[in-house]
Amino acid sequence: MTFRGRHLLGIEQLAPDEIRALLDVAEDYAAFNRQPMRRRDTLAGMTVITLFYEPSTRTQASFELAGKRLGADVMTMAVAVSSVKKGETLIDTALTLNAMRPDLIIVRHPASGAVNLLASKVDCAVVNAGDGRHEHPTQALLDALTIRRRKGRLHRLTVAICGDIAHSRVARSNILLLGKLENRIRLVGPPTLIPAGARELGCEVAHDMAEGLADADVVMMLRLQKERMDGAFIPSEREYYHRYGLDAAKLAHARPDAIVMHPGPMNRGVEIDGTLADDINRSVIQDQVEMGVAVRMAALDLLARNLRAARAGAAGAAHA
Ligand code: NCD
User: Fold this and answer.
1) How far is the CA of 264 from the centre of ligand 1 (A)?
2) Of ligand 1's atoms, which has the minimum distance to the CA of residue 169?
3) Which of 12, 128, 184, 208 would you call most buried, defined as having the most Cβ atoms within 10 angstroms of its Cβ?
4) C-alpha–C-alpha distance, residues 46 and 101, integer Å
């Protein structure tokens, strides 16, 4: 057993062997999920709560499915109609839920660091489903699994991450993960959307798609995250699409077998051409969604094993 964490808060805390271990387990779940009977009792008797303070389609749905396929009781907190609307703080909500003795809480929150804070207040395992512009570890892991399956390896690849890097937790978690496994990472976008410190993170930077995509094995596109922008970062969406929107002509600068990725939600005609996004010969966007369920099953499974081991250890110590 090489996955050691009590929580899954970020890629930053994971060692390369933990990443590989999680992806190996996820690979088994990917095969399992293609069978007609997709139900196990790995998490039977356990309670999983999802608590999302920001909109979500893929992440929330796949965590819920992952929990259910593993036999857990899954409760989806409808934050928009909860006491959060009456002014309850994140920590008070967390302590309330904690008193109901869940085993795992999956949290998405607009503030960077909020999920780490919550994890320090509760007894259960916590999974970060995206906190501000900080981390989104399961997205980076599902991207890694998708790349590994398509490229046959997860090292010595050239990965171009393009668009709004500055506001993206997906980019940050991917940079950390791909960097730990010795890949070449290029951040491509207008200067206003490239974070300060990109080079210190070991990334190359390009402000031009032709230069940024040259020899890329993987082209990862990101949405303009307007909800995290204060002010105007681009002159217009039309001009942005012209310079940075991925279409067949710009993709021609990458390797002929380069794959196109996007975490979703996608804005067709802004960061990516709709026809290219649907081209199953180049785009692996639907694979990413499929791998999302497998990776989240692996994460829940491994965290539940560690939780059980910790509880058994605590019970043993109490008897001694
Ligand atoms: C991303 C997120 O929420 O960070 N979406 C996702 O989880 N698939 C990316 C985004 O919102 O643009």
Assistant:
1) 6
2) 4
3) 128
4) 10
**Residue 225 in contact with ligand 1 by CB distance below 6 A:** yes
Task: Determine how many CB atoms are found less than 10 A away from the CB of residue 44.
Answer: 10
Q: Taking a C-beta distance cutoff of 8 angstroms, is the pair 219, 259 a contact?
A: yes
**pTM, rounded to two decimals:** 0.97
- Whether 157 and 184 have beta carbons less than 8 Å apart is answered as yes
- Ranges assigned E (strand) in 19-167: 47-52, 73-77, 104-109, 125-131, 158-162
Looking at this protein, which amino acid is placed at residue 6? R
169 touches ligand 1 (CB under 6 Å)? yes
For residue 228, CA distances in Å to 54, 282, 305 come to: 12, 30, 36
**Per-residue confidence of the chain (320 residues) as pLDDT tens digits?**
589 999 999 999 999 999 999 999 999 999 999 999 999 999 999 999 999 999 999 999 999 999 999 999 999 998 877 888 788 899 999 999 999 999 999 999 999 999 999 999 999 999 999 999 999 999 999 999 999 999 999 999 999 999 999 999 999 999 999 999 999 999 999 999 999 999 999 999 999 999 999 999 999 999 999 999 988 899 899 999 999 999 999 999 999 999 999 999 999 999 999 999 999 999 999 999 999 999 999 999 999 999 999 999 988 888 87
Residue 85 neighbours by CB under 8 Å, 6+ apart: none
Mapped onto helix, strand or coil, the DSSP state of residue 289 is helix
Neighbours of 275 (CB within 10 A): 11
